[in-house]
Design brief:
The structure holds 2 protein chains of 2 kinds. By secondary structure, chain A is an alpha+beta fold. Chain A contains 12 helices and 18 strands. The longest helix of chain A is centred in the middle third of the chain and has 32 residues. Chain B is 33% helix and 13% strand. Chain B is flat, with a radius of gyration of 23 Å. Classes of the chains: A alpha+beta, B alpha/beta. At the A-B interface, strand 1, helix 1, helix 4 and helix 5 of A face helix 3, helix 4, strand 2, helix 5 and strand 5 of B.
Chain lengths: 464, 304
């Protein structure tokens, strides 16, 4: 087989729009260009708005992880206004946040990943599946298919739990700066306990055994889609009156060494992204020659970094394993189980009382940075204000990191690295293999392609 | 069967023993439904939005998502759900558009960027071509039986077209010279969307308001049906978020927002923003978000 350029597009079953171009040279992927093909410009939209709009506005960056943006924006505003958070507020916030993560992980596994491994019925929306590498027994296949439809209810229950407190989902209303606007009352706590019990049962009886089965049957994927062992997490589930504590620890994992984070070491690069500097601003440039994505590349200490549930589980010592396609899937399912247990524990800590919210009206500072891990990795918001209005709002999402294009030194982002070198034993298997690797990162291109640094330099700029 | 015969048979069986009547009625109804069974063929294109509407759709209850797929719609193309990928997916799209011309419902989820030939949203790429949202919608729109704009971005531009709108995004109706059914919301309540699809399947085109939205869901303002209307009428306003009084003081735009949130509520109908002690931010409106901003400033003092 000679050298061949192939456009894998659209990469379906993910959030947003993704096209991946590969060159296959004698049965091996020699080049991979991962392209996010949507640009919205939320950071431009945030400019000149009142800072308190940030929570509801930035939730609209992403549908599948909306609360994540609301949470980070709330932490940002808590700092700007110097809020004090009550214990009830801390528990409620984390319960709601956890519910949205559970929703994400369950939907990712069943709706997005399962059709990569399980033969789906030949009817819409599953027609044309073209899954050649089918390995499950008919009985196992039928069981997982049944679980696909059970996951519909389990994931809906996650959002119902979130809505009991949050008013609606996606784009909840009550988790705002200063606390949570809804009272934890006996009836709501009881409803939430019932919902999480049901979700927990589903995770224990379906998600975990299904993950183990797929990991056993497709164990070659512990060698496929590997990345360098460089993973980062900002920590997840903030506690403390000032959001200063993190239930799960963050850090930079290099090999087996964990080091403390320094956000000053984050840099961005637009070499292969559809952006150009114009009058001191970086603006989208869809005709830029050679570029192939609206996602910029980000580096930590000069190197591309992977993030997500695998990073969290490795850094916190819950999971031991590698950095492959199947490790990512296993770590995400393990995290799902752990989070259901946390929600049950936190619900037990709530003390019935009034809405745990206190919003101050006067800003104590005009600049802040907030960061935490969310569904897919580390999310960062930063802002600079003037007269309570946004002068500059920056968002760096997990998919910015995982789906980074090649930087000016030709360094591959994690997804491109994972794809490059992959053996394609049969040309008909190309999409199946690429799809499995790509989806293990839980792509969210809606998130990835908003980022724009309004006053950036061209490349290699330290952004803080 | 004629109505008279049916009633006669029911009368006879009403005095019969066991469950003769219900057995008879159920089998007749099943037979009728089977003879009428048809699903709505749907092509769903995701354009410039956050994907929150497909997540909202997954939250539908009665019918749940699985039932929607098996009983209500044939979801032929959907970036979110379809098992097919790459060129296989594009082939399905092209074949469905030809084979079901004039019969499929086109669902567009997201705004349409116009600037730079629409290159800010590319649905799919081939080796030599970029299929933009603008091209896809102007190609498929005229071929569809119905066009449904899903969410506020698709209906009116929404967040994607918020100022300064550097991508030049617009709602679907601005790029198609035909009727578009707008199901606005950021995101939509799944009942609004699934209810609209059901209406198309069972009864055809629903009655629309002057913004092209089904009056069934958008016909009255949030304010009119709000549980806290009595507080408003008595001039009792919330002092801060978390209070139980009227949220008008906290920026609520319920008075200018057509939607049935107060009585329908969200996610299996358990809650909605005002019940959560926060203002309605008018996410179904033509001028959302700019007309609702700043969200926590009372309506008469807002920007736009």
């Amino acid at each position: 087989m000679s050298k061949k350029r192939i456009m894998f597009s659209p990469v379906t079953r993910l959030s947003g729009l993704l096209s991946v171009e590969v060159v296959v040279d004698r049965g091996v992927v020699s080049i991979a260009n991962a392209g996010g093909t949507m640009y919205r410009g939320i950071e431009h939209i945030m400019k000149d708005r009142h800072i308190t709009d940030a929570i509801y506005m930035t939730q609209r960056v992403c549908g599948i992880c909306s609360l994540a943006h609301g949470a980070v924006a709330s932490y940002l505003l808590d700092e700007l206004y110097d809020h004090e958070l009550s214990e009830n507020a801390q528990y409620l916030r984390n319960i709601m946040f956890a519910a949205d993560i559970l929703q994400n992980h369950i939907r990712h596994f069943y709706f997005f990943s399962i059709p990569d491994y399980v033969k789906m019925p030949n009817q819409p929306p599953f027609e044309g599946q073209n899954l050649i590498d089918v390995r499950l027994s008919p009985q196992d296949n039928a069981r997982l298919l049944e679980h696909y439809f059970r996951s519909v209810v389990a994931s809906q229950e996650c959002h119902q739990l979130l809505t009991v407190f949050g008013g609606k989902a996606p784009n909840q209303h009550s988790f705002v700066h200063g606390g949570v606007a809804v009272a934890p009352t006996a009836d709501k706590v009881n409803q939430a306990l019932s919902l999480i019990a049901s979700v927990h049962t589903f995770v224990k009886e379906c998600l975990i055994p299904d993950t183990e089965l797929i990991a056993r049957v497709y164990k070659d994927y512990f060698k496929i889609g590997q990345t360098p062992r460089r993973l980062l997490s900002f920590g997840m589930f903030r506690f403390g009156t000032k959001n200063q504590l993190s239930h799960w620890q963050g850090g930079m994992l290099t090999g087996n060494k964990i080091s403390a984070l320094d956000i000053q070491l984050i840099t961005e690069d637009i070499t292969n992204a559809w952006y150009l500097p114009v009058d001191g601003q970086v603006l989208p440039a869809p005709y830029k020659p050679g570029a192939y994505t609206y996602i910029k590349s980000f580096q930590y200490a000069g190197q591309p970094i992977e993030m997500g549930p695998l990073a969290r589980m490795l850094i916190n010592g819950f999971y031991r394993g590698g950095t492959s396609t199947m490790d990512r899937i296993k770590a995400r399912s393990l995290e799902t189980l752990l989070i259901t247990e946390l929600v049950m524990e936190w619900l037990g800590k709530l003390v019935p009382g009034p809405p745990p919210i206190r919003q101050k009206q006067k800003l104590v500072q005009e600049q802040a940075v907030a960061a935490t891990d969310v569904m897919r990795g580390s999310l960062l918001h930063s802002v600079r204000l003037k007269d309570e209005k946004v002068e500059e709002y920056k968002i760096i999402t997990p998919s910015n990191w995982n789906f980074s294009p090649k930087d000016k030194n030709g360094q591959l982002g994690p997804v491109e690295y994972a794809l490059t070198g992959t053996i394609i034993p049969n040309p008909k298997l190309l999409n199946t293999i690429l799809g499995r690797i790509i989806r293990s990162f839980d792509p969210c291109i809606n998130c990835g392609t908003h980022v724009l640094n309004a006053k950036g330099e061209v490349t290699d700029k330290i952004i803080f | 069967m004629q109505k008279e015969d049916y009633i006669k048979r029911c009368r006879e069986l009403a005095v019969g023993s066991g469950f003769q009547l219900s057995n008879y009625v159920l089998s007749e109804v099943r037979g009728y439904r089977k003879s009428k069974s048809r699903k709505l063929p749907v092509i769903w294109i995701e354009t410039s939005d956050s994907g929150d509407n497909n997540i909202a759709f997954m939250n539908t209850t009665y019918p749940y998502l699985g039932q929607v797929f098996t009983d209500l719609i044939d979801l032929l193309y959907s970036n979110t759900f379809m098992a097919a990928q790459g060129q296989d997916a594009l082939n399905i799209l092209e074949q469905a558009a030809v084979k079901l011309r004039g019969k499929f419902t086109l669902v567009v989820e997201g705004a349409i960027p116009l600037k730079d030939n629409g290159l800010y949203t590319i649905i799919a790429r081939t080796e030599d071509r970029k299929l933009t949202a603008l091209e896809a919608v102007t190609w498929l729109g005229p071929l569809a039986e119905y066009v449904v704009a899903l969410g506020t971005c698709a209906s009116f531009g929404g967040i994607s077209a918020a100022r300064p709108n550097i991508t030049g995004s617009v709602g679907v109706r601005k790029v198609l010279n035909r009727e578009v059914i707008n199901v606005s919301g950021c995101p939509i309540n799944p009942d609004w969307f699934v209810g609209t699809l059901a209406h198309l399947l069972l009864y055809g085109r629903p009655e629309l308001d002057n913004l092209g939205r089904p009056t069934l869901f958008y016909g009255f303002t949030v304010h009119r049906h709000c549980q806290r209307r009595s507080y408003f009428d008595q001039g009792q306003f919330a002092k801060e978020l978390g209070d139980i009084e009227c949220m008008f003081s906290q920026g609520c735009v319920g008075p200018k927002t057509g939607a049935d949130c107060p009585y329908r509520q969200w996610i299996n109908h358990v809650n909605w923003p005002v019940k959560a002690n926060t203002p309605c931010i008018g996410c179904t409106n033509e001028d959302f978000p700019d007309g609702s901003s700043p969200f926590f400033t009372p309506l008469p003092e807002k920007n736009d």
